[in-house]
Write a structure and sequence with these properties.
By secondary structure, this protein is an all-alpha fold. The protein has two domains: 1-47, no CATH class; 51-78. The chain has two helices and no strands. The radius of gyration is 25 Å and the shape is elongated. The protein starts with 34 loop residues before the first helix and ends with a helix. 6% of the residues are buried.
Length: 78
Amino acid sequence: MSMMDPMPEMCTRECCARPCAKNPRTGEYHKFCSLRCSRMHKQRLDDEPLPSKEHSFAFFIVLYAKLSKSGTRKERDN
């Protein structure tokens, strides 16, 4: 690293404190310190379960039912 190079940022992967790797052709820094860290980060993201569409649909049905009940109470109170 020459004196003119900016300090590289730290690796994006959690639990890694190494500086990011520099692309020797372009001189730009990658997000990760190594290909291994990049792959481990991607695998961790793939392993996390995505929110279920059925769960969010059920949430909206319950929310709709609660809002409907509160609307009818207001109408009766007036």
